Amino acid sequence: MTTDTATEVFEEHRPLLLGVAYRMLGRVADAEDVVQDAWLRWSAAGRADVSRPRAYLVRIVTRLALDRLTRVKSRDEAYIGPWLPEPYLTDFGDTVPDTAERAVLADSVSLAVLVVLESLSPLERAVFVLREAFGYPYAEIAAVLDRSEPAVRQLAGRARRHVEERRPRFTVDPAQRRELTERFLAAATEGDLEGLMALLAPDARLVGDGGGKVQASLRVLRSADHVARFIVGVARRGLPDASFRFLEVNGGPAVLTLSGGEPDTVLQLDVADGRVRVVYVIRNPDKLHALRS
Question: Does residue 184 sit in the same domain as residue 283?
Fold first, then answer.
């Protein structure tokens, strides 16, 4: 395999590798580092005997992500306030033409699912990502992880039960979710308490992630009243030279708030039965670097 061909093969698989690494780690920068490390190993190694580059590269990325995930988990024990994944721009474009497959990929990268995945062991998370998000056979996952197939099946079952028990079931038409997001943004920027209350489910929650570096709620807010009053209070303080941009992140519509042209906040809503059930607010500046235009 020539150097040019090796580069082409790696670039062909880069979106898949980044997708695996991000779902494993919940951090864009860490996922990109893992993929770069995989490239260095791929480019330095002899590849004449690699008959299945996809399997070979996924194995490298998964193992690198497992190593990094173990280190990250110990680092996050000191995290200040609620933790949310780093926003991940998701525009599958023409690479995922099948609507059902697109829905599976979008769900597997949603904020709600990634938050639940944080509570899995690194091995359970690897098995869940490869099996549920990318449909890998158990035998291939066993080869990637150097585990027996029965052990992988056991890990998969445990991880699946854990996720199913804990992840919320929010199924909504993307157009409706976008429309509710637009109405929510309008009510929030106008400080319209009654308008927000009309959009929020009675048991709505707000999860804010400032990482201890910027102002954000240090606990999960519960009930429509608490969430609406918090948002109105934030709106009244305002931001200098604020502007807004709609993006698709983690498989759904989101609002990026900029202050002076720099990313300040990502807001995303989980919606069910025409009401907002969860408000995600990501403000940790370390998690917004990838959104700089």
Answer: yes
